Here is the input.
Amino acid sequence: MQLHKRDVVDVATSLLDDYGMADLSMRRLARELNVSPGALYWHFANKQQLLGAVADRVLTAVDTASADPGDWQLGIGSLCTQLRDALLSHTDGAELVSASFAAGQSRAMGEVLGRLSAAAREAGVGSTQAELAARTIVYYVLGFTADEQSRLQWDAAGADLVETVWDEDPSARFAFGLRLLISGISVHSRSDA
Here is the structure.
């Protein structure tokens, strides 16, 4: 049987969902595919490239197509909600995508960043600051979702956690933080004008 890159990513994504990031190793993946670990390196030069491909698979549900011009706020909100949903749909999705983003291994996160930068420019943020605004939003989504996934894992393990603001609806908390960022972009763009 010939091993295809797509098959490697499929099985790696399944391992991520079943066991999480900590147990997604090249050795385990090779065992699941019934090949030697060296066979994986035919398709991926290293584990970081593999994780980038899995991150891109996780992000297939995110539509990075440009929103209607003039509605940058709605575009940011929609894109970030889709990003959060995609991350939550996979065990350790936020951790995986964050690591791949930091290593520059995720093509899909580059597209997300590009779309958010374009939205910041539509809002009136200068070109030199638009990518910084986009990265700030991405860091918020990744951080919020990583924290949310950690809390879900603690809850699933039966941990007795102290009641805090985290007991409130996570979607409402996420939307509140996103509104703060969007409002900040709006104020920043007006102050630059």
Remarks:
- The chain has a mean pLDDT of 89.
